[in-house]
Amino acid sequence: PSALYSAAVDLGATSGRVILGTWSRQRLTLAEVHRFPNTYRELGPHAYWELGALWHEVQTGLRQAVAALPRGAKLASVGVDTWGCDHVLLNDAGRLVFPPHAYRDARTQPGLQRLARTRAALERVYAATGIPNVFYNTSLQLAETVASCPAIEDLATRCLLLSDYFNFLLSGRMENELSNASTTQLLDVHGRDWSRAALNHFRVPAEWFKAPITSGTKLGRVRSLPELAGTQVIAVPGHDTASAYDAMPAAENGGDLFLSSGTWSLVGFENDAPLLGADALAARIANERTGRGGYRPLTNVVGLFLLEQTMKDFSRRPSHDREWAALIAAAEKLPAPAGLLDLADPAFAAPDSMKRAIDAQLKKRKLRAPKDLAGYTRLICDSIGRGHAHAAQAFEHMIGRRFQRILMVGGGSRNRLLCQATANAAGIPVASFSLEGSAVGNLASQLIALGAVKDLKTFRRLLAHHLEQKAYAPRG
Ligand code: LFR
């Protein structure tokens, strides 16, 4: 009777999962009940998500979560987090009125370059939203949608981020949640509402958005799945990165830098105020928000997408833990690469072949391409490690203090080579936790909303108690 059961739906751009969380004796245990690959599909020159397929997997996972409950137990709640920026346009009846594009669609390139060239506009948008000019921004996507399909202004009445949309499919309520709203480059960096200046700049109709809700808001009971009839839908930090940051077993002295390492490497920390101005803009700092409204300035470094994609060019890619360990061990034994990759290369955004994109950059810089997959693994991990270090140094420079530790969660936290490369390049010890960060943060918000845990500080303290950590001291 004392155990509480909640489900986390955590959707990433390359894979999704449904995790059943059990809260008992002040301790959270996780059971992954469903995991599935996710990918966008190309239709002509554009890239789209298959939301029907994703929704099917979400439903399958939630049924599995219910099936995994002990006899007589009930699923108290469910929460959804997804990758940021991508969204749907709906009418009042909840019908999709525009196909859901994937953020790697090249359609934002002209808008991206236009804004990059107009210094005054770039500074104005950054001062208003605290979000730098990046190809995946919702702002650029919506600007392109409105420009290429002007009739959309008559058809669409609402814009929901994908986490909001899955909340709607589950509960029937259309809300915009704060953390994911902050990824759009359309939210006011100083308040909790949408930025008129940014909406006007991108010509996005203000009516498409409602004042954002904060995490912990109860959206009502699940309406769409009879098996979950009594289950509450709770708004969690809808942005996967915000949920992952909530799961950081951070020290209360603020000395920890956070690194959520997956497809992207999100390097950042929590702060009372946003970091703005010329230095912040130059360092491409995104002042995204926590589900409660706080700031989590971060830099988005190209992450393990580089390695995931490069592996597609090799027919023999590791399929289980032992093969992974062998690949990492082989990569570790190699001499340090003569030069590292420039991660800002736009050719890495969505190449047909990542290996060819890497080789082309190396060739341009008169560097030799690695011989085999181990060589690429070494080059990529060392390069990402240096990217992490650069981000850390930019933050330290701006806030005028050193970080004591780098806390690392996500898929990359199990990659020894990447953890060590990060510690070495940053000169800061890394503490890695093999933790499904986003799912854990998602569950934390639900437990707090249900009254089982007092607040996030308490949750983090209880979590840190049971977590296994691996420490990497800087070397070399
Ligand atoms: C990570 C993430 C990043 C965001 C990128 C695109 O999954 O949410 O935070 O910048 O995906 O949305």
From TrEMBL:
Domain Carbohydrate kinase FGGY C-terminal: 258-449
A Pfam family that the UniProt record links to this protein: FGGY_N
Molecular function as annotated in GO: ATP binding; glycerol kinase activity; rhamnulokinase activity
Keywords linked to the UniProt accession: ATP-binding, Disulfide bond, Kinase, Nucleotide-binding, Rhamnose metabolism, Transferase
Any one Gene Ontology BP term: glycerol metabolic process
Domain Carbohydrate kinase FGGY N-terminal residue range list: 7-243
Alphabetical list of InterPro entries matching this protein: ATPase_NBD, FGGY_C, FGGY_N, Rhamnulokinase
Coiled coil residues, start to end: none
GO cellular component, one term: cytosol
Family the UniProt entry places it in: Belongs to the FGGY kinase family.
The name this protein goes by in its record: Rhamnulokinase
